[in-house]
From TrEMBL:
This is ATP-dependent Clp protease ATP-binding subunit. PROSITE patterns: CLP_R. It comes from Kribbella sindirgiensis. Residues 1-69 form the Clp R domain. Keywords: ATP-binding, Hydrolase, Nucleotide-binding, Protease, Repeat.
C-alpha cells in the first residue's frame, strides 16, 4: 500500500482510475467512496468494512442503485447484460461537482490546518443525504447517519 503522507493525491489517483473504469468524464463521489474503501490499511476503510462496505459490496450497491434509478424512469436494466463502459483514453476525468462538495464538507469537518486524510474524506461522503452515494448506502441497508457519527467521533479523536 502506498505511503499515506499524501492521502488526497492517492485518493484522486484511485478515484480517477475508478472514473475511467466507469467510462466517466468526471470523478464523482461514488468513485471517491470506492477509492477510500481500497485504502485497506486506513481507519476510514476499516470503518467502511465494519459496516459491511467492502469494495465489492459498494460496487454491488452502486449497481443496484443504478438499476433502481433507471427503473424509476421506466427503464428495466440488469447489470451484466450491458456492455462494459468504454473508457476515453484521451482524457483524464476531472473532479466533478459531487466530489468538490464532499471535499468542502470534509474540510469543514476538522479544524483549519488539520491534515486532510481519508477519514475527513469519508466524513464528507457521508455528510449528504442526497446523491448516488446516499442512495447506494440506503440500498445496501447501511445507516448512513450512524456511520457518519462514527466518522465524526474518529475525527474528534484525531484520526485522519
Amino acid at each position: 500500500m502506498p505511503d499515506h503522507k499524501d492521502v488526497r493525491a492517492i485518493l484522486v489517483r484511485a478515484a480517477r482510475a475508478e472514473a475511467r473504469r466507469d467510462g466517466s468524464r468526471t470523478i464523482e463521489a461514488e468513485h471517491v467512496l470506492l477509492a477510500v474503501a481500497a485504502l485497506e490499511d486506513s481507519a476510514a476503510a476499516r470503518l467502511l468494512a465494519d459496516a459491511g462496505l467492502t469494495e465489492d459490496a459498494i460496487r454491488a450497491a452502486l449497481d443496484r442503485e443504478w438499476e433502481q434509478s433507471l427503473a424509476v424512469a421506466g427503464i428495466a436494466v440488469r447489470m451484466g447484460l450491458l456492455p462494459e463502459a468504454t473508457p476515453d483514453g484521451d482524457r483524464d476525468p476531472q473532479i466533478g461537482e459531487s466530489t468538490k462538495l464532499l471535499l468542502r464538507r470534509g474540510m469543514d469537518a476538522s479544524p483549519k490546518g488539520a491534515r486532510f486524510g481519508s477519514m475527513r474524506i469519508l466524513f464528507g461522503l457521508l455528510d449528504s443525504e442526497r446523491g448516488r452515494v446516499a442512495r447506494a448506502l440506503q440500498t445496501a441497508g447501511v445507516d448512513r447517519i450512524a456511520l457518519r457519527a462514527k466518522a465524526a467521533e474518529a475525527l474528534a479523536a484525531g484520526t485522519r
